[in-house]
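Record pair follows.
FIRST:
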Amino acid sequence: MSKEILGRTTRIDLPRLGFLGIAAKIDTGAYYCSLHCHHIEVRNIDGKNLLFFTLLDPTHPEYKDKEIKFKNFETKQIRNSFGDTEERFSIRTAIRLHGRRIKTWVTLTDRGSMTYPMLIGRRILKNKFLVDVSLNELKASGD
């Protein structure tokens, strides 16, 4: 299968989460994808741990104030851009990127201070896409 060329930014869909056209930054230095969320918490309901979160935050124009629930989730140790290790919740979901539907792990974190609510890591890019940093599909300033 041929590899498609991506720019340093793109738009992605998260069909299972009900979000389409989310602005994303390609980050080959990150291993996993990460998504801007808030109110991330585990609740024990009927003896089972469930992960609840809200995508984006009230300051984001695409914010829907919709709580999302996941039964299957993990915690992962992630090294952030400052070199610090932090524990994050991670969900396995589908991302639609340039017409391809790809199941992958996405970590949930507060990216409220960043320009792009979604970061696309190299794990999802491997063997599928090439990145040309001279291309900028969104024509927005980077973070």
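SECOND:
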Amino acid sequence: MNSEYQKLLEQAKTRYKENRKYFQKLKKMKAGKVDPIMASLHDEVFMEIDCLKCANCCRGTGPLLRERDISRLSKALRMRPGVFTEQYLQIDEDEDYIFKAMPCPFLEIDNYCSVYENRPGACRDYPHSNCISFKKYSSQMLENTRICPAVFLIFEKMKALIP
């Protein structure tokens, strides 16, 4: 991982309690105020952050896989869904399908995803900072500040705009 991104994640860990309080404040605000700022900052920050220099999400945060994800991936890999499930997936404590092991089995050495066009929906939506509703994903985004340097930067910039 890029050393600059590593430093951002170290800052995120030290500011986690502060950020938790800030997220509680944001959750009490009207979505119409928070969501447009979030969308703007998402676009701004992702002009600076190169996911291919990080891929931290692919190393340690396994997505939940839905039936449509399993179907799409198994078709792309020319496998039967049952074989795909047996080879790559397990059921977690919430009865959801997740990868058996991390990093993601489709993460390549250069941080590219070998199944990018067919990646799970959770991967497509990650890190949820461009979502329609901050309130819906606020707890996930709080955790994502410690995983994704872009999310941490978004909220650092948001703190300047909404103190």
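COMMENT: The beta strands are 89-91, 97-99.
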